Amino acid sequence: MAQVTVRVGGYSHPVACQDGQERHLTNMAAEVDKRIGTLKAMGMQFGETRMLLLAALQLADETGDLQAEIAALKAGGAVAAPPAAAPVPDTALAERLGRIAEAIEAIAATLEGA
């Protein structure tokens, strides 16, 4: 058995794994650490145990969703499409709308002066 020390949430943890699985274990620990970093960035300030619990619950939730998708695919069912990406801003359209707004303001100013 191999012994790896991983760093999660600012704490070092020695963990045993099968020989050859060290990199995989390190990658998994990095994912958990990333989740804890995200929680901290959201302003959550809990103890180590609570942060690990919240990160584990996030991972369990995603795992459950993936398992449901796999089961639906195996059953020949449809899987919900991933959320659409945010639309890319159209700068030409924004400039055109700006010119139209200026024209409308000019017309309004003319009408107010009449």
UniProtKB/TrEMBL annotation:
Keywords noted in UniProt: Cell cycle, Cell division
List the source organism: Neoroseomonas marina
Pfam families recorded: ZapA
Q: What protein name is recorded for this chain?
A: Cell division protein ZapA
Specify whether Methyltransferase is a keyword of the entry.
no
Q: Which Gene3D superfamilies match?
A: Cell division protein ZapA protomer, N-terminal domain
What domain of life does the native source organism fall in?
Answer: Bacteria
**Record's SUPFAM superfamilies?**
Cell division protein ZapA-like (SSF102829)
| Keyword DNA-binding (UniProt) | no
Q: Which GO terms are recorded in the biological process aspect for this UniProt protein?
A: cell division
